[in-house]
Amino acid sequence: MEQIVRVIGAPTDYGANRRGVDMGPSAIRYAGLADQLRAAGVEPVEAGDIRAPYAEECDPETRSLRTGTARFFDETKAVCTQLAETVESALAAGELPVVLGGDHSVAIGSVSGSAAASPIGAIWFDAHADLNTPSTSPSGNIHGMPLAALLGIGEFGELEWATAPNLREENVVLVGLRSADEAERALLEERDLTVLTMSDIDRRGITAVVDDALEAATDGVDEIHVSLDLDWLDPTAAPGVGTPVRGGVTYREAHAAMEQVAARSAIRSLDLVEVNPTLDRSNETAELATELAASALGKRIL
Ligand SMILES: NC(=[NH2+])NCCC[C@H](N)C(=O)O
Ligand SMILES: [Mn+2]
Ligand SMILES: [Mn+2]
């Protein structure tokens, strides 16, 4: 029987500075996600969007940009709680959830939902580490914090809704990192996450690096969550993102990595996040997201 993929939109933009990433789910759907998924041999089922508030509807206090806090914290909690439930029930029905962001804060919901019933590993394909906490954040933007939340780091340790007890940091892998804040560097020194930076990819090539990532993420667990932040790719290939960093992976390296993920047959759930249509070129980045999802779920050249 064909694997059913449940497509869940999480149209947030309050977790990031640049507005417009809430249009990501529509843009990814209009770029032909369902057809791409069918070409990968899976059966898409559309779940629609989680309701996320516009920043304008929220408390002016939480809207103001500042460091050392988590802006839109209550909104993030409400959206991520709903999203976690939706992801968990899709999995309980034997479906594979694909979550369309929105900014990367939605991963707090998708991963905690995905890890609710049993242990899981996670691979973060991202230019950034997303390991800030409210007190270390230079921006107050929660899209820079989801991994810290899921691992219960700092202030997140007391927040049950944000942590994923079935995700051990030994099974968390960052791939393609090239922008880390000072507190994130210190944390990566101390902790047991696996970090494979762009320099590792330069030296050893994408295939060897993704092999290592899959190895670490599945050590002692059967399945993984893949969180794909489109700013993982070089901005020449993925211009429609709010926090671009030069020196990312190429179009072909990204596909190769996703094909390797598919070959391992260990994917439980997937995020496609940070696609911002207001910054894109003719929906190119949304299209790329659909293609990479297809590769991650089994579409092959031959
Ligand atoms: N998911 C992302 N694009 N995160 C970007 C985070 C940028 C920066 N490290 C911050 O915390 O503000
Ligand atoms: Mn990023
Ligand atoms: Mn990210």
What does this entry look like structurally?
This protein is an alpha/beta fold and 302 residues long. It has a single domain, classed as Ureohydrolase domain (Arginase, Chain A, 3-Layer(aba) Sandwich). The chain contains 11 helices and 8 strands. The chain has helices at 24-30, 33-39, 60-63, 73-92, 107-114, 146-150, 182-190, 198-204, 206-217, 251-264, 284-296; strands spanning 4-10, 43-49, 96-101, 120-125, 167-177, 194-197, 224-229, 267-273. The protein has an 8-stranded parallel sheet, with helices on both faces. Strand 5 (167-177), helix 7 (182-190) and strand 6 form a beta-alpha-beta unit. The model has no long low-confidence stretch (mean pLDDT 97). Pfam families: Arginase.
For the structure shown, list the relevant keywords:
single chain, 302 residues, alpha/beta, Arginase, Chain A, eight-stranded parallel sheet, 18% strand, binds arginine, binds manganese (II) ion, Ureohydrolase_dom_sf, Ureohydrolase_Mn_BS
Quick rundown:
The protein is built from eleven helices and eight strands. The chain has helices spanning 24-30, 33-39, 60-63, 73-92, 107-114, 146-150, 182-190, 198-204, 206-217, 251-264, 284-296, and strands spanning 4-10, 43-49, 96-101, 120-125, 167-177, 194-197, 224-229, 267-273.
